[in-house]
Amino acid sequence: MNTSPWNKQKVLEVLRDAGVNPTSQRVEIGYALFSSCAHLSAEEIMQRVNADYPVVSKATVYNTLGLFAEHALVREVIVEPGKVFYDPNVSAHYHFYYVDSGDLIDIPASSLEISNLPELPPDTEIERVDVVIRIRRRSTH
Amino acid sequence: MNTSPWNKQKVLEVLRDAGVNPTSQRVEIGYALFSSCAHLSAEEIMQRVNADYPVVSKATVYNTLGLFAEHALVREVIVEPGKVFYDPNVSAHYHFYYVDSGDLIDIPASSLEISNLPELPPDTEIERVDVVIRIRRRSTH
DNA sequence: ATATGTGCAAAGGTTTTGCAGGCTG
DNA sequence: CAGCCTGCAAAACCTTTGCACATAT
């Protein structure tokens, strides 16, 4: 039996359910993304997909991840200029970011409460609330 | 009399107090940044500095803004991959980000309360807490 | 046959690097 | 004059675009 919750057939179904045409490139990218529990950069995803032989171009990795994000299959986490992570966890949650190592750690939404949110500008609605707690190794004085 | 709180002499003093050698390029960039109350991109800052004739190169704008950020003279606000704003307000505060127009609006720290912060990983300390509330024009159904 | 969708090479934009020239002690 | 600092041209990097090819009606 297969101990992993993900296989390519399941990815295919998830894409179709989300309204994304499940082409082979998209299934490969989705598999690399979902079967990892980590926060991956576009570069890392491409390396995994193309580990054995070239399967997708970099442009397709970017375009596909953008498409997944539109369909709420993945969440973009922006931590540095030119450094986007793709987080397969799309439920509401926040992040610790290790400034030194570049690692990203989830904070469950239940662990952090935001209150007294100010009134939104007129005729606007919230798309998302991003919270990144930037931490560093405590300096040894 | 001068009605603006900023002039180049004052910028020079602020740089020196922060431990940044106040070269002419840095004073020009600092003046463009501090005398504006807006959130400017590196590109916009360069346009202001070089409005009349070339004063600094793009590389120097980037390097100088990075230097200012290290010395807490400016705060980098990252809202999109490859889109950094420089915010002369370095006190604790948060941001609304208009997804559609790219505008950024300050939220005073007093307007938003974060509680139940989870325990930090061992031997780490908070550098900064970034909160970006991404908003969009409400769709007209 | 026409229209729509897809993947990628090439282009575009942003940020970093490496080094020539200047300044300081 | 030796060593450090500064500014910038060029390089590197990340992301988007435009188009050729494929697929569906």
From TrEMBL, chains A, B:
Belongs to the Fur family. Homodimer. Coiled coil: none annotated. It comes from the Bacteria. GO terms for biological process: negative regulation of DNA-templated transcription; regulation of secondary metabolite biosynthetic process. This is Ferric uptake regulation protein. PANTHER family: FERRIC UPTAKE REGULATION PROTEIN, ZINC UPTAKE REGULATION PROTEIN. Gene3D superfamilies: Winged helix-like DNA-binding domain superfamily/Winged helix DNA-binding domain (1.10.10.10). Its main location: cytoplasm.
